[in-house]
Amino acid sequence: MYKFLLSLCLYSILSGINIINAQTNLKDFPIDTSYTVYSAFQKLIKDYPYIKIVSTAPSEKIKTKENIIYTKYSERELHIDIFEPLREKNTYSPAVILIHGGGWRSGSKSMMHPLAEKLAENGYIAVAVEYRLSPEAKFPAAIYDLKSSVRWLKQNADEYKVDTNRVAILGCSAGGTLAAFTGVTNNNPKFEVKYDTLNISSNVNAIIDIDGILDFTDPAEGGKDNDPEKPSSGKLWFGSSFKENPEMWIEASPLNYFNGKTPPVIFINSSQERFHAGRDEAIEKLQSFNVYFELHTIRDSPHTFWLFDPWFNETSELVLHFLDKIFVN
User: Fold this and answer.
1) Alpha-helical segments (H) within the chain
2) Distance of CA 85 to the CA centre of its chain
3) Which of 84, 104, 144, 224 is deepest in the core (most CB within 10 A)?
4) Burial (CB count within 10 angstroms: exposed 0-12, middle 13-18, buried 19+), residue 230
5) SS3 249
6) Minimal CA–CA distance to 5: which of 24, 18, 17, 23?
7) What confidence tens digit (pLDDT) does each residue in 268-314 have?
8) Phi, psi (5° rounding) for residue 303?
């Protein structure tokens, strides 16, 4: 038992996963711990020997509250971490919900803490969200969770001084796909929790997609499942391959929901083409609807660039510039 706890502590330090939450997760539901900041670092260090994991330190400009329950499914609790800027009393601020990546099957909300802290230091309420992953629940469970988190934030707007007319959703990799899907399905009852009795909108006012794919039917995504022993992340999330159930893969593609009421969008991409699936087609739609968007590609960057220096500052500055333009200026 001692060796197990010692190894878990070491793992927690390296990966940035909260140890108490991890132990609870292991008891309550199946969990995939394959994707952490440290595992991503190990994967990249050979090709990018100059990278560093983004470090964080307590800031006097913000206050933090972690592991707040925002919804429950029977005994299963889902949590958020809130990073608030220090403000004058009764000052309401815009908010950003942050969604971690991990192929819809792994990862932790703690991976979004560095970016959340950066946003809070610059006047935004940042909310890192836990959501159900594919070992526990298939699509569209994560969408239900994220829309519930938006409603919870608006329900508690007075406590945290949230301006409910200025709520953005941000995600990285798989989280980017989820952020886009959540935003482009504003006012779509199909993806709302059926038993939710809150008369509160889950709509968001801006979308920040950081290297999240938009079209699962793209050959780079839908053509992967040729080996039954190595199912793709998509198959694990949907429960079937593209060949077995193309309708599901189409339904889960955010590209198919862009419309004239889509809120402003920023795409921040790596230089890895695979993660641009559906982006250009989405931009064509946004242009036809005259919806504001921005497109930025981080030069010579790997997929998980937002987790590491030297790309973290550029990423956070692009996010802040976009948010300031949409919500402040």
Assistant:
1) 2-15, 19-28, 37-44, 113-121, 141-155, 157-160, 174-184, 219-222, 233-238, 246-251, 279-289, 312-323
2) 21
3) 104
4) exposed
5) helix
6) 23
7) 999 999 999 999 999 999 999 999 999 999 999 999 999 999 999 99
8) -60, -45
210 DSSP assignment: E
A 10 A CB-CB count for 72 gives 10
Show Cβ contacts of residue 174 under 8 Å, excluding neighbours closer than 6 positions: 101, 102, 103, 104, 107, 212, 233
- What pLDDT band is residue 13 in, cutting at 50, 70 and 90? very low
Q: Would you say 213 and 269 are in contact if contact means Cβ atoms under 8 Å apart? A: no
9: how many CB neighbours lie within 10 A of its CB? 11
Phi-psi sector, 90: left (phi>0), alpha (psi -120 to 50), beta = left
pTM over 0.85, yes/no: yes
Show the tokens assigned to 254: 């955010």
For residue 327, the one-letter residue type is F
118 closest CA partner among 193, 170, 51:
170
Closest CA to 168 of 321, 55, 312: 321
Four-point Cα dihedral 209, 36, 120, 325, nearest 10: -20
* Contact in structure between 178 and 216 (CB atoms under 8 Å): no
CB-based contact 68:145 (threshold 8 Å): no
Identify whether the C-beta of residue 133 lies closer than 8 Å to the C-beta of residue 32: yes
Tell the residue number behind the tokens 């909310």, with chain if given.
127
Backbone angles phi, psi at 85, to 5 degrees: -75, 145
Spatial separation of the C-alpha atoms in residues 280 and 230, rounded to whole Å: 29
- Report the alpha-carbon distance of residue 306 to residue 175 in Å, rounded: 12
- Summarize pLDDT for 24-36 with one digit per residue, the tens: 344 568 999 999 9
Residue in 76, 160, 172, 66 with CA at minimum distance from that of residue 117: 66
- Look at residues 111, 233, 137 and name the one whose alpha carbon lies nearest to residue 177: 233
| Bridge pairing between strands 76-85 and 62-73 | antiparallel
Q: Provide the pLDDT for residue 21.
A: 37
